[in-house]
Automatic annotation (TrEMBL):
InterPro entries: AAA+_ATPase, IstB_ATP-bd, P-loop_NTPase
The name this protein goes by in its record: DNA replication protein DnaC
Species the sequence originates in: Oceanobacillus neutriphilus
Pfam families recorded: IstB_IS21 (PF01695)
Residue ranges occupied by any AAA+ ATPase domain in the UniProt entry: 117-236
Superkingdom per UniProt: Bacteria
Spans traversing the lipid bilayer: none
């Protein structure tokens, strides 16, 4: 049987150096192509350099990041319960109507800058001062940073959970698993309606699952009224590692009047 001989390209070591890009020791070698249409052509090869590997790895990492961001947006859009008038809410287009609300806005900006995934916020104050606006704006900023967020009006969430009893689209367990998983959850309008024992039990499940993760709460009630509405156990759980931001002022929705 005739053996096949493989021709090795002629090579000549040109230089040895440390690559500034990847920090690896490199042997720069001149090679001569032995066969084919490019036979005799000389090329330069840098053996040991990892720059191309690093470039490909970074490209793959960026693709994964973009896919994760797209997935987060799909989850946010699918599960979040946001009124149409809040869809365009941002930190930048929130215009405080007094010094107290200006201070509240700055506290929120500081919260975003120092976000660690563990600290909670309670936005409390009179009707129409922009608590929901600010909360939606926080989710947008944090999603830009790669965090998975969810905005839920608590009254609508409780209705949504009831709807899952007869739904083939989303089960209660699936909904609660998403709530448990996300990096930041906003529970809007807590105490807006009378809470039954069932509602308070569901609220405790959510709060218990969120233990150790960031949650933002908004309410129009003071501490005594809120405690009476959602019960002592839920109120105590809500206040764990929670910064209270007061948002009192004239109705933000009627500022033009």
């Amino acid at each position: 049987m005739e053996s096949i001989k493989l021709s090795k390209p002629k090579s000549e070591l040109i230089a040895e150096f440390t690559c500034e890009g990847c920090g690896e020791d490199v042997k720069q070698t001149k090679l001569q192509i032995p066969k084919g249409p490019r036979a005799g052509e000389e090329i330069i090869a840098n053996y040991g350099c990892k720059c191309e590997d690093i470039k490909l790895a970074n490209q793959a990492k960026e693709r994964r990041k973009q896919l994760r961001k797209s997935k987060m947006m799909r989850v946010f859009d699918y599960y979040s319960l946001i009124n149409d008038n809040l869809q365009t809410a941002t930190i930048e287009n929130y215009k405080p109507t007094n010094e107290d609300l200006q201070q509240a806005k700055q506290q929120v900006i500081d919260y975003i800058a120092d976000y660690d995934g563990k600290k909670n916020l309670l936005l409390t104050g009179s009707y129409g001062t922009g608590k929901s606006h600010i909360s939606v704006a926080i989710t947008k900023k944090l999603m830009e940073q790669g965090n998975e967020c969810l905005f839920l009006s608590l009254p609508k969430l409780l209705t949504k959970i009831k709807d899952t009893f007869n739904s083939k689209e989303v089960t209660e367990d699936e909904l609660l698993q998403v709530i448990k998983r996300v990096d930041l959850l906003v529970l809007d309008d807590i105490g807006a309606e009378h809470h039954t024992d069932w509602a308070n039990t569901k609220l405790f499940e959510v709060l218990d699952d969120r233990s150790g993760k960031s949650t933002i709460y908004t309410t129009n009630l003071g501490s005594k009224e809120l405690r009476a509405q959602i019960n002592e156990r839920n109120f105590s759980r809500m206040m764990e590692n929670t910064e209270v931001i007061m948002m009192n002022g004239r109705d933000y929705r009627r500022k033009d009047f």
